[in-house]
Write a structure and sequence with these properties.
Length: about 180
């Protein structure tokens, strides 16, 4: 009987703790705030492919185009230690070759199966889905991850509101000698 009472009290305390508080529904204000943050944090600069010298907004935030292939990393020497592709969605450096992610809500190739907590965990830990492979340069996750939970939830709400774009981004390529 005593153990049942302790279990019941522990369950009640856990259920009422702030960490378990219900997540508020997404509002239009959240989406608008997220759109603003995506603009001022310049997410389109890397996650939207260039077409010529302008962002191709028909592929907004869809990451490195799957049809562009996987460019070989250029040989870099002297003070030049990294380079970007012509689409500005693939980057080579001492970390190998990284490709910008598809941030659209496409369920197969983007963030469509993620929830806000997974998104926040990824940006706070620097790990894909908060537990997978490292998020590579030039993604500034250490700085973006310092945003408030509310701001990161707003960004995620906005990303979930844009049109899904099917675009399978390649996996990162290890640097030579680490394959």
């Amino acid at each position: 009987m005593r153990h049942s009472l302790y279990a019941l009290l522990a369950a009640a305390a856990f259920a009422s703790s702030p960490a378990r508080a219900e997540i508020q529904p997404v509002t239009s204000h959240d989406v608008e705030r997220g759109a603003y943050l995506v603009r001022v944090m310049m997410c389109n600069d890397c996650h939207t492919p260039l077409k010529g010298q302008e962002p191709d907004m028909s592929r907004m935030l869809s990451g490195h185009p799957e049809g562009a292939g996987v460019p070989a990393a250029p040989a870099l020497a002297g003070p030049w230690v990294w380079a970007g592709s012509e689409t500005m969605t693939a980057f080579a450096g001492p970390w190998g070759v990284s490709f910008t992610a598809n941030l659209t809500p496409d369920k197969e190739t983007g963030l469509g199966d993620w929830d806000a907590d997974t998104f926040i965990r990824a940006l706070r830990t620097g790990r894909h889905e908060g537990r997978g492979r490292p998020i590579l340069p030039p993604m500034p996750w250490p700085w973006i991850g310092q945003a408030t939970d509310d701001d990161l939830r707003a960004i995620f709400a906005y990303l979930q509101s844009i049109p899904p774009i099917r675009n399978k981004v390649p996996q990162p390529v290890d640097p030579p000698g680490e394959e």
